[in-house]
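yo, Cytochrome bd-I ubiquinol oxidase subunit 1 apoprotein is done. seq:
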Amino acid sequence: MFESFDALFLARAQFAFTVSFHFIFPAFSIGLASFLMVLEALWLKTGKGVYANLYRYWLKIFAIAFAMGVVSGIVMSYQFGTNWSVFSDKAGPVIGPLMAYEVLTAFFLEAGFLGVMLFGINKVGPRLHFAATCMVALGTFISAFWILSVNSWMQTPTGYEIGANGQFLPGPSWAAIIFNPSFPYRLVHTVIAAYLTTAFVVGAVGAWHLLRDRANPGARKMFSMAMWMAALVAPVQIFAGDMHGLNTLEHQPAKVMAMEGHYQSHPDGAPLILFGIPNSAEKRVDYAVEIPKASSLILKHDADAPLAGLDTIAEDRHPPVGTVFWAFRIMVGIGFGMLGLGLWSLAARARRKLYDWSWLHRAAIVMGPSGFIAVIAGWVTTEVGRQPWTIYGLLRTADSAAPLDAPAVAASLLAFIVVYFAVFGAGTFYILKLMDKPPEPHEEAVPTHGPVRTAGITPAPAIEGGQP
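structure:
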């Protein structure tokens, strides 16, 4: 039944499937760890029980999302040695140490303090517990740092040498490898995306409970905090994305050509194609809706600046234009949707109606999963736009795969699909069940009898009063 598919296509499909599942959870847990850090800091500063209640509420969700992120990430490591063994052999001397640094720094840091964060809330003092929360939040960022450094090096490889056996070897400076040309832009853009993803999930949960009970202090607080993030950070993300795009134009022009749908060069200013249907056979975008010269204005800051098209690049080096074209528009469209919701919330806040406008709350619920869609669309834009290369301009994807038969790869792909949807579907369902429960303003205090804790006080006593 798999005779119509080759092993390369199936290996790419398997990695795309597993990494898409995996990417969802870190994109949520990175932002949620920082949100928990902010909540605990606000509790320590103000003593208001609402922050302690929200901390407990989101801590349960964080634990599940973090666990699913770790488990789903382990599978991808095995794929490097099975489906992509040639890539691992050639690039291992460079990317292997970077992946090891991620384990030695981020993973060990998270593992060391996660237990205190999850189970020590009633057993250690508040400042020590806050320090553990900070370390976990820092660990998630460091993990993103190393993973994005690896990915960015594959996009814009620098600091390497080619060995006699064809391997990529580290040059005299690891800094040139780690801080490759696209890494700072990709790190900022991705981490902000994770924060916005979390903010819109938190905002959607707050809005859901506000529609049920507008007086719930936890729902009001989380919705307010999320809308501040949407209003203040979404414009920053749009600016960061623009800077990332300019960097991509410099180092990966074919990707930008596919994003813009520019099959042909435009010597007197290129149009911005808003919508259309890419037609790679005819080398044009059918039914294009475009703004004349706007693409040159955005990319070159000059409406009459020439822009090269895919006609200047050999056809066997073209990325799949249709996929990149639409993934980019989904990402950008969601970004402006986030900005619109943030501005709407500012208008409601200015009129003191933030907790009263039900249509704003409904819109926030609709936008709840938007961050996940945006990060997946951004990942597709980045990775599919890099094709046909695994290491851009140096190692083709077709030359990176292991010599496996298609049925072998297909069997593992089917197994992953079944297991992933069963396991992670159940985990996601449980997270949604937790979110459906409103944050309680008066949780029970920790019993004072017996050896409940070893030192200090914790957020638990503050919950008894439940003061907002």
